[in-house]
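Fill-in record for Pentatricopeptide repeat-containing protein.
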Amino acid sequence: MIKAAQRLFDKMPEKDVSWNTMVIGHAQVGYFNEAIKLYREFRRLSIGFNEYSFAGVVTACAKSRDFCLTGQVHCQVFVVGFLANIVLCSSIVDAYAKCGKMSDARRLFDAMRVRDVLAWTTLVSGYSRCGDMVSARELFEAIPEKNPVSWTALVAGYSHSGMSIRALELFAKMMKLRVQPDQFTFSSCLSACAGIASLKHGKQIHAFLVNAGFRPNTIVLSSLIDMYSKCGSLEVARRVFAYNEHDVVLWNTMLSALAQHGMGEEAIEMFFKMVKVGVKQNRITFVVLLNACSHSGPVQEGLSFFETMTSNYDVFPNQEHYACIIDLLGRAGRFSEVLAQIKKMPCEPDDHIWNALLGVCRIHGNVELGRMAAELLIELDPQSPVAYLLLSSIYGVLGMWENVEKVRQLMNERHVRKAGC
């Protein structure tokens, strides 16, 4: 209730430590600009500060993934001599890691005189998020005293990096050593099972949950639905879902499962059931719904959902939604409408849009439009291999092998490497 808190705060004759509370509160609910503004006002007043005075602004750094701001806060903490505080220093390491700046995170970590398990786990998580599982594993093995969170960080890293077998092997070792898993551990392991479509392992984990009397939260239930769906057991996924009438995450997961199985009409029916029982739709609901329409035919219904999502459901379209519409229209070969939608966008198209356009150009062999999308995507991110590979694929489908070779040469000149190489 941040607005109510702000009104009360504004009336306070003396605010002292309440400044810290307000900065943290705004950062935690995602009001980063307001958090930073309050922090600046507080520092200008020169009424004294301590280590906790930086907690809110560091939270804003991590959540907003603002590298420049993180560097500025790091400098301020260094100048006032608070880097010796383990929690504060670990939080700055985490902020650098969430900005994807692992070299900066590692330098600060290496400079810490004292490190607790939180500091170690923070860096393991950072490497895992960046897909550098070699560094993550090396660091994990070096942790003097591991806890369940550090084990889970590595399991999750393997799972998210597509190394499902490694994730499940580590989970088995974790169980053997009697390390207590948590909800996130189970969710990551179920995602690993889904990644390799291993129904056997997924059932074993589900059985463990049941036999241990473990009460799964929404994320674990969602992972169970996703696992059974991707392993081809859609009916079991439905039983796990069992029409939970209040949780939008589970509804979205079940909608996605139907879409993955090409059951677009059923996904649309389920969406209307969702509306009927009073579950509030969110941004992801419409991404899933538009994808369902895109992959199983009902173009007009997809357009209708897109046009009414704001007026009827109070969800404002973003780049992902526009990318879904471009995919929907493009798969139907309606390229003039695709271009019209791009022109109508209230913001500059990003990589979501050009990736979607490239994909449908490849399906229909639309070389000219595909080339334009590839050039714009390359302009946005010259080192991303996606645009080069998709353009090369378009040329390959049309038998234009000289152009395929030119794209490869361009990749070599710019030192662009395929993912995983």
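KEY FINDING: The chain has a mean pLDDT of 90.
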